[in-house]
Amino acid sequence: MKLILLGAPGAGKGTQATRIAAKYNIVHISTGDIFRANIKGGTEIGKLAKSYIDAGKLVPDEVTCDIVKDRLNWDDVKGGYLLDGFPRSLFQAEELSKFADIDLCLNLEVDPALIMDRICGRRVCACGESYHVSTLGGKTTCAKCGKELYTREDDNPETVKARLDTYNKMTAPLIDFYAAKNKLATVVCGTKTPDEVFEAVCRVLDK
Ligand code: AMP
Q: With bands split at pLDDT 50, 70 and 90, how would you rate the model's confidence at 113?
């Protein structure tokens, strides 16, 4: 299974991606995670990516496409993969179609009114788990692995506004792009819990 996970910031892509990858035994590839690892490692790509990420903008298409193209050449993706946060522009989608044959683009539709609170209240763990501060009851460590939780640097109101703007301008057109190819499935998240969203996602993927 070769999947794309599409959705506005705060739609819960990361949370659902972790679960989908585990259940369907496919590799989870998050371009955001790849960039953050590069920033942490102080690489040239990391230095370039940081200025765009901090501004809520897209890292240039060519750089991003090269990273994904290279990643999809690894042996571990032969049994399938899930692209989380890629493609994010029509250019990236066109490029992707030159080196990968995607089965389905799963679009997580979130209520725009909920996004700011969801993202600014997000606390993440290095293991990939993600929480909302309102459900932590004051705890500051990950329930799964015990590590200290932290707030992503780009999860602040100003950057979130820019990220939403970027999503609406650059990424939302991909919904029509994949619908026109009969490869789009939309799951409406509304106020559903992550468990409920995952059930809906599985119903789509099990078809
Ligand atoms: P994410 O973790 O998916 O929310 O991504 C965090 C940030 O990384 C985004 O706001 C972008 O600045 C950058 N990024 C992630 N994926 C892409 C992509 N496909 N194209 C360009 N920039 C990206």
A: confident
